Amino acid sequence: MAPVQVHVGVCGAGLGGLAAAIALKRGGAKVTILEAATELGEIGAVDEVRTWGLNGQVVTRVDSARVKKISGFPHYIARRDHFHAGLTESARRHGVNIIVDARVNKLESTPDKVTATTTKGDSYTFDLLVGADGIKSFVRQQLFPNVQPRATSKVAAYRGVVTRDEVLSKIPEAKSLLSNTMDMWTGPNGYILTYPLSGGKELNVVTSFCKDYYVEKMEEVDIDEFRAYYKDYSPAIQSIIKLVNYTQRWPLLVMPPMPSWTNEHKNVVLLGDACHCMQNHTGQGAGTAQEDGVFLGRVISEVVRGVLSIREAVSLYEKKRMPRAWTKQQLSQVSGELNMCSDPAGLAKRDQASKPELAAPGEGSGSSAAFPELPPNYRSWQVFDSPDSVPGIFYYDAEGDADNAVCEYLQEQDRERGEVDNITMVGKCLSRKWWGAVEYNGID
């Protein structure tokens, strides 16, 4: 059985678009990326959480060794631009055709084809087009012109990067912040997150603060105003904040639940921030976009093998990815509320709940010596880095989920068509998926 020729266009070369392109190419599709920018690039990860006050008391902590043990994966930190460069190189090595300075400004689709035209007048025709073009997605605007992301809270984000040399020369006591850890200072109406980048050569400072209005767009911010947000925090973290010489106010917009991520023909589909942008309090925006891409690549691989049609594959993608993304959007909102709790009673209740993480080290559970053995039913309120509280994030396998979705769908088809063998009880569609590998790989 010869592979079905499938040409997929990806609109946007961000982290989600590149992940999708790599997965689609691995699945046997021909892939072309249309990127609006003239050059490729990205702009842009906790071990201990402290209270905001003068003593910076530790209120919760996470054992990264334990996380690795129970989830099976270590926690790596990378600069977005470094990670983006790696994905770009991987895409090119896989044979993805990346076209820059190709801003799409017109889409036309029929049941069989999609044509994308750029501002330069170049047209490209695909069997499937993926809109991975971010929060201001042109593709989404063509499919759902009335759907727009919106601010669901008055919280905005601020970012800054300082060098290791500067930190050590001006704040020697802050050396620990450049080690292999992440630290968070939580306080009423805001928090500060610090973690090392580039092998400890840099320290990333990411903060959030609740304004008195809904921030809908990026804004310039006076640096003294920014520093004043955290004037009551511990001296240690204030010293770090004073090293940040420039920042901007970033809106934290959320896409409302959408009725669909595709056009009527199921050959234009959205991915990542284009359809599920979320607040940043769980650090899952780019990760969720990459999950989308990996899932989509896997189901499209079954189109290449002749098991599914594009319409069927994209429908499975929508069915499975839409509720998962919406769950993460809600989790991110709640995580921010927990981090920035301002009610004294609620704050005391929150911090009391994480006391087990600060107890004396336990033995016999495999925990590292510096951390306690937690009760089996323990759930941390610091959800963004807790595999116990949110195992669906830490344990998720996008390829496995996609393949299972295909198998479930084929079983449904077998039952509806009555094509289940009476003796073996094996369905015809499902059997063809696995036996097809014999023909596909040219095995006699």
Write out key terms for the chains shown.
FAD-bd; alpha/beta; 444 residues; FAD binding; 5-stranded parallel sheet; FAD/NAD(P)-binding domain
Ordered list of secondary-structure elements with their pairings:
Layout: E1 7-11, H1 15-26, E2 30-34, E3 48-51, E4 58-61, H2 64-71, H3 80-94, E5 97-99, E6 104-109, E7 114-118, E8 123-126, E9 128-131, H4 138-143, E10 150-163, H5 164-170, E11 183-187, E12 190-197, E13 202-210, E14 219-220, H6 223-228, H7 235-241, E15 248-254, E16 268-270, H8 273-276, H9 285-304, H10 310-339, H11 344-353, H12 391-394, H13 398-417, H14 428-440
Parallel strand pairs: 1-2, 1-9, 2-5, 3-11, 9-16
Antiparallel strand pairs: 3-4, 6-7, 7-8, 10-13, 10-15, 11-12, 12-13, 14-15
Question: Can you characterise this structure?
Answer:
- One of its GO terms (molecular function) is monooxygenase activity.
- Belongs to the paxM FAD-dependent monooxygenase family.
- Residues 345-371 are annotated as: Disordered.
- The protein is of the alpha/beta class.
- Among the domains are: 7-43 and 78-149 and 256-338, FAD/NAD(P)-binding domain (3-Layer(bba) Sandwich), CATH 3.50.50; 150-254, 2-Layer Sandwich (D-Amino Acid Oxidase, Chain A, domain 2), CATH 3.30.9.30.
- Helices cover 36% and strands 20% of the residues.
- The protein has 14 helices and 16 strands.
- The strands form 3 sheets. It has an 8-stranded mixed β-sheet with strand order 4-3-11-12-13-10-15-14, sandwiched between helices.
- Strand 11 and strand 12 form a beta hairpin.
- Helix 1 packs parallel to helix 9 (285-304).
- The longest helix is centred in the last third of the chain and has 30 residues, at 310-339.
